[in-house]
Design goal:
alpha+beta; about 220 residues; Glutaredoxin; 2 domains
């Protein structure tokens, strides 16, 4: 199923990166529209009237919202190309669980750069604990999908582009805390779909610094 495919996104969003990687893994061609989240376009507001957030995938003029749902939609619409979710129902359920859990990376990471003092330390503790739980789920496997790059890998790897910002503001090292997880990051970066679509961590850091100024944190 092809048709017209348009992605509404904002460059630094790890949630948008999920969708881009999934589309790339499937070899799906699409149009891209960068959104200014301060002045959201009428198309975005029309396409996602409930949350008014990116990313939104518009396929044949029908919008699909929320990154986890979009990635699953992509997997179902183009099932013949690099399946992302496992076939077994239990394994699919586990993949969906850990994919949903991984959003805590962003939630706790945001608490790191938006807070100071004890609040930041508490956020850092929660952030590292979240990564350690994911690292435990990964175990000694090559990917979260075992030997196959799959749904959880697609969903989690974009957060790596934000690690430098979290580490710098939180004064810690992800690699020191979770070496196996960082080894997984490096393996994922060997895939073209990941390496060419993840944003530069230094650029993301600068973006976060601008956000801090906007919120009056500096």
């Amino acid at each position: 199923m092809a048709g017209k495919i348009l992605l509404l996104n904002m460059w630094a969003s790890p949630f948008g990166m999920r969708v881009i990687i999934a589309l790339d893994e499937k070899g799906v061609k699409y149009e891209y529209k960068e959104e200014n989240l301060r002045e959201k376009s009428p198309l975005l507001l029309k396409s996602n009237p409930v949350y008014k957030k990116i990313p939104v995938l518009i396929h044949n003029e029908k919008p699909v919202c929320e990154s986890l749902i979009i990635v699953q939609y992509i997997d179902e619409v183009w099932p013949e190309k690099s399946p992302l979710l496992p076939k077994h129902p239990y394994e699919r359920a586990q993949s969906r669980f850990w994919a949903g859990f991984s959003d805590k990376i962003y939630e706790n990471g945001t608490r790191i750069w938006r807070n100071k003092g004890e609040a930041r330390e508490e956020a850092k503790k929660d952030f590292i604990n979240c990564l350690k739980l994911l690292e435990g789920e990964l175990g000694d496997e090559t990917y979260f999908g075992g030997h196959t790059f799959g749904f959880v890998d697609v969903v989690v790897i974009p957060f790596a582009s934000w690690f430098y910002a979290y580490e710098t503001h939180g004064n810690f090292s992800v690699e020191k805390e979770c070496p196996r997880l960082m080894a997984w990051v490096k393996r994922c970066m060997e895939r073209e779909s990941v390496s060419k679509n993840l944003q530069d961590p230094k650029k993301v850091y600068e973006f976060v610094c601008e956000l801090r100024k906007q919120f009056g944190i500096e």
